[in-house]
């Protein structure tokens, strides 16, 4: 999720367990810890694909963050033994903002390596967009109220309600995801080992569905309440371009994306695009993998410039929205 959301979530959960013994300064602690895992973006790796696939890795591991929480907890108690009187609340103030960060990220489409260092495919429950105001604003409202509180008990109650609402919103997204998934079992185009379902930007009402096959992938839009036949658009996966090419970076990208890649040739370079993140005509994560020198020759991957957002090109989405 975006940094603002992680900040207010961290502040909210810390406030829920620690504002009574520690005061409003606990909101700052929660906000800082809530955004801490994303500081891995400051690390620079050797290639663009490493930057892409190693984000949300060790810094988002439930094991690493749990151990770090214990270490930080004992470190604080060592220097401030007076806090032993509130040691349970202290641990929760540290642990909850750190651990809720990757768990929330796992509900998005990017992929979060919750079980790092185990070499398994990143977790992506794919039921909330990376920016969703309906999730973020209630938490922000509660945190601002706690900071400027005049009636602390009232705002503690409001904060708990907003946290419950945020959890319910995530559950609602999962329910819609499962509902759409069940409806797709009757659609022949959706019969694929690589079926991808994700909410469209800033909401959980309209969903994009991508059915990936060897030579083609199919895209449509729907809602959990839609009972009409789906209208699919067909696109070329471009996999014929890599019949004689393989590399460690390609394998890494295939693993990270679950194989949902489109391949194109541009300026004598082989380009791989992650189809999970973005919409038709706007996919922000594309990488150069090889150059055409009679045969593909591996190169150090580079991230391609992001396409310009042009709403006029998102014809299928706009057409679907007009019918709602």
TrEMBL record:
The record's GO molecular-function terms, alphabetically, read: hydrolase activity
Q: What is this protein called?
A: Metal-dependent hydrolase
Q: Does the keyword Hydrolase apply?
A: yes
Could you tell me the keywords of this UniProt record? Hydrolase, Membrane, Transmembrane, Transmembrane helix
Alphabetical list of PANTHER family matching this protein: HYPOTHETICAL MEMBRANE SPANNING PROTEIN, MEMBRANE-BOUND METAL-DEPENDENT HYDROLASE
The membrane-spanning stretches of this chain are 58-78, 90-108, 128-148, 160-178
What does the record list as coiled-coil region(s)?
Answer: none
The residue range of the signal peptide is none
Taxonomically, the superkingdom here is Bacteria
- Mind telling me which Pfam families this protein's record contains? YdjM
UniProt keyword Hydrolase present? yes
């Amino acid at each position: 999720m975006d940094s603002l959301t992680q900040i207010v979530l961290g502040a909210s959960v810390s406030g829920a367990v620690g504002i009574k013994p520690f005061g409003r300064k606990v909101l700052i602690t929660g906000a800082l810890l809530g955004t801490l895992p994303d500081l891995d973006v400051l690390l620079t790796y050797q290639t663009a694909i490493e930057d892409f696939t190693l984000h949300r890795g060790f810094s988002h591991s439930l094991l690493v963050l749990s151990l770090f929480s214990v270490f930080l907890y004992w470190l604080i108690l060592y220097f401030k033994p007076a806090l032993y009187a509130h040691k349970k609340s202290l641990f929760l103030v540290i642990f909850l903002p750190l651990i809720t960060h990757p768990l929330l990220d796992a509900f998005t489409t990017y992929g979060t390596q919750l079980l790092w260092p185990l070499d398994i495919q990143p977790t992506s429950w794919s039921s909330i967009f990376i920016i969703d105001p309906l999730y973020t604003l209630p938490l922000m409202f509660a945190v601002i109220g706690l900071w400027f509180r005049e009636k602390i008990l009232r705002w503690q109650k409001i904060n708990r309600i907003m946290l419950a609402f945020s959890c319910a919103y995530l559950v609602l997204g999962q329910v819609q995801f499962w509902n759409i998934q069940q409806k797709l079992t009757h659609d022949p185009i959706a019969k694929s080992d690589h079926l991808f379902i994700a909410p469209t930007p800033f909401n959980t009402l309209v969903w994009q569905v991508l059915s990936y096959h060897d030579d083609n992938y199919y895209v449509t839009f729907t809602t959990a309440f839609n009972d009409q036949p789906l209208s699919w658009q067909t696109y070329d996966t471009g996999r014929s371009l890599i019949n004689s090419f393989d590399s460690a970076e390609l394998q890494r990208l295939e693993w990270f994306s679950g194989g949902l890649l489109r391949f194109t040739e541009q300026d004598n370079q082989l380009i791989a695009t992650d189809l999970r993140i973005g919409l038709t005509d706007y996919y922000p994560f594309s990488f150069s993998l090889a150059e055409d020198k009679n045969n593909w020759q591996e190169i150090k991957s580079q991230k391609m410039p992001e396409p310009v957002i042009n709403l006029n090109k998102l014809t299928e989405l706009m057409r679907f929205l007009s019918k709602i």
